[in-house]
Amino acid sequence: MAFRLKTLMITGAAALLAACATATPYQAAEKSGAYGFDQQQIESNRFSVSFSGNSLTERETVETYMLYRAAELAINNGYDYFTVADAATDADKRVIASPSPFSGFRDPYYRGFSPRYDFYHPRFGWRSAYRHRSGFNRARRGGFYSGLGGRFYDPLFDDFDYREVTRFKANAQVLMGRGPKPDDVKSFNAREVLTNLGPKVVYPAEKS
């Protein structure tokens, strides 16, 4: 029964990963910190615009979508151009672990050390795994930090693979204006941005 339950949970986790194994499309973020674009109006003609992508979304795509959203905001608010100020692209790197029924709990990058890693567990969410002092990376010889200072033992998920993932977030403040755009490399004609970047924009798949 335990083996069957473990198999079902691994299958479900694999299906979930497969469903999420695409780059973040051009969409509004459902909430703060979620993937997609977000904006905040600061003044009548000034906005803070950002786009956050998952680990499969390239930096260039994140920056393209941020500019595209700025152009949309300019047009929707009756402006002709926008000037980008205080632009930055942040990279969030972390080592995570994912269940693997084949590879065990081996970590070729940190052998001999005792770091803690963040990983996503289908039952408990984001947690931190630790290495047992014996040198074996098996959960059954130790456990996981629950995130509340305690440890728990999970017989269903004791095999993990580590990998580093990077998520990019582009953000900027944009100042919008009417008429011909200034002769400034940071200023963009909003309509030309929509025309030229439009073919690169991938929207969410329609739900059947």
What does this structure look like?
The protein has 208 residues and is an alpha+beta fold. It has two domains: 2-93 and 170-200, no CATH class; 98-164, no CATH class. 21% of the residues lie in helices and 34% in strands. Strands 1-2-8-3-9 form a five-stranded antiparallel β-sheet.
Portion of residues in beta strands equals 25-35%
The helix-and-strand class reads: alpha+beta
| Global geometry | elongated
**How many strand elements?**
9
Tally of alpha and pi helices? 3
List the SSEs and their pairings.
Layout: H1 2-19, E1 36-43, E2 46-52, H2 59-76, E3 81-99, E4 116-121, E5 125-130, E6 144-145, E7 151-152, E8 160-177, E9 187-189, H3 190-197
Antiparallel strand pairs: 1-2, 2-8, 3-8, 3-9, 4-5, 5-6, 6-7
In short:
The protein is of the alpha+beta class and 208 residues long. The protein contains three helices and nine strands.
Q: Which features would summarize this protein structure in a list?
A:
4-stranded antiparallel beta sheet; 21% helix; 208 residues; 2 domains; 5-stranded antiparallel beta sheet; alpha+beta
